[in-house]
Specification:
This protein has about 400 residues and is an alpha/beta fold. Helix content is about 50%, strand content about 15%. The protein folds into two domains: about 1-165 and about 370-390, Glycogen Phosphorylase B (Rossmann fold, 3-Layer(aba) Sandwich), CATH 3.40.50.2000; about 175-365, Rossmann fold. Strands 3-2-1-4-5-6-7 form a seven-stranded parallel sheet, sandwiched between helices. Helix 1 (about 10-30) packs across helix 20 (about 370-390), helix 5 (about 100-110) crosses helix 7 and helix 12 packs across helix 18 (about 335-350). The model has no long low-confidence stretch (mean pLDDT about 95).
Length: about 400
């Protein structure tokens, strides 16, 4: 039996890897020989998938920001379509990755209509639906949506989709996370040292739009708190040189590490971070955080004045219950001064920290029980067996 998985960016590769592991585990238990081929990255490959094309480095957020990736994305889509036509799998799983996966899913519905398609982690149209057409396409493409947020499940069910709420895969990932004590020992962090995690970029555009303001804020905090040390997990090797130069430029006492993201996050007293899946990892580790996001001024202007773009929240911890748990500083509010203000309050104000941690505990109850990826894998295996039987 064969499954094709399509995803992109760093977070998609992580979530894809968790799913591949669960699928492989269930196939072994059922005595089935299972091949998984797809679009993703190194983590999926290490989990046992054959990677048709690496999509980790070609993701973007924004209108102007996406332009350099149009041609690479089209090439990857074409490669995927040719593969699907020549070697049809027993099921296809799409993970997030809105525009590319809409293209692949639409192709399947036109040319391989009997092929089961499941969308695990549907694109966040339920938060910022600019185009009702996208939602309609998602519903049309999918035999089933495997939702990770309760609100996501309710939204797509109301639009006519078949939906199973499985919970968020990071609930499973956190089972292997170290405790704060173990993480600090691993990294050699003393009991008196203030440890702040900086998460500046998982997309190339963020090196330009987010890293400078995050590092400027860190520079100010360092002047206020001489005992602070910054820890930076490296999302992609291609970003190493740019981050190292920025550390030197801002004079930060900082350590850049690869393959130790969970240790860095678990050891932190605070995280200053871009918006993304990592916000939920930080929340599940009970670390207060300040979330920041910027796109190009042109993209921001088009979104506000032409598309009338408006969202209640951006970071996953706030999206779970549609309530503010962590501070979000978006676009014009994303200044070093504002970052420092929120960061220092979360570091030094015990009541504010406790308020954040209480919000995390309540949020956690809405993410599902451990076994998320196995529940998703079980749903996928049902369609896989059904298709093979037919």
């Amino acid at each position: 039996m064969k499954i094709f998985i399509s995803t992109g960016e760093v977070s998609g590769d992580l979530q894809g890897a968790l799913l591949v592991t669960a699928l492989k585990r269930q196939a072994v238990a059922a005595g089935l020989e299972l091949e998984i081929v797809g679009l993703g990255g190194q983590r999926m490959a290490e989990a046992g998938a054959t990677i048709l094309a690496d999509t980790v480095g070609i993701g973007s957020m924004g209108i102007i920001e996406s332009l350099p990736y149009i041609l690479p994305t089209i090439k990857v889509q074409q490669k995927a379509k040719e593969y699907l036509k020549q070697f049809p799998p027993d099921a296809v799983v799409l993970i997030d990755y809105l525009t590319p996966n809409l293209g692949i899913g639409s192709y399947i519905r036109r040319c391989l209509p009997s092929l089961p398609v499941l969308w695990f982690i549907a694109p966040q149209e339920w938060v910022w639906s600019i185009s009702p057409r996208n939602t309609s396409l998602i519903v049309h493409i999918c035999d089933r949506i495997l939702a990770i947020f309760p609100e996501e499940a309710r939204y797509f069910q109301a639009k006519g989709a078949k939906v199973s709420w499985v919970g968020h895969p990071l609930v499973d990932r956190m089972q292997s996370a170290p405790s704060r004590e173990v993480a600090r020992k691993t990294l050699g962090i003393g009991p008196e040292q203030v440890s702040i995690a900086l998460i500046p970029a998982s997309r190339r555009q963020e090196l330009s739009y987010l890293m400078p303001v995050i590092f400027e804020a860190a520079q100010i905090i360092q002047a206020k708190l001489p005992q602070v040390h910054f820890w930076i997990p490296l999302a992609l090797e291609a970003y190493r040189d740019a981050i190292e130069r920025a550390i030197e430029h801002y004079g930060l006492r900082a350590t850049l590490l690869d393959n130790q993201t969970l240790e860095i996050l678990a050891a932190a007293d605070l995280a200053i971070t871009k918006s993304g899946t990592v916000n939920l990892e930080i929340a599940l580790l009970d670390v207060p955080q300040v979330v920041v996001y910027r796109v190009s001024p042109i993209t921001a202007w088009i979104a506000r004045h032409i598309l009338k773009f408006s969202i209640p929240f951006m970071s996953p911890p706030n999206l779970v219950q549609m309530k503010s748990i962590v501070p979000e500083l978006l676009q014009d509010e994303a200044t070093a001064e504002n970052l420092v203000s929120h960061a220092v309050e979360l570091l030094l104000n015990a009541d504010r920290r406790q308020q954040t941690l209480a919000g995390y505990r309540e949020m956690r109850e809405h993410l599902g029980e451990v076994g998320v990826c196995d529940r998703a894998a079980s749903e996928i295996m049902k369609y896989l067996k059904l298709n093979r039987a037919n």
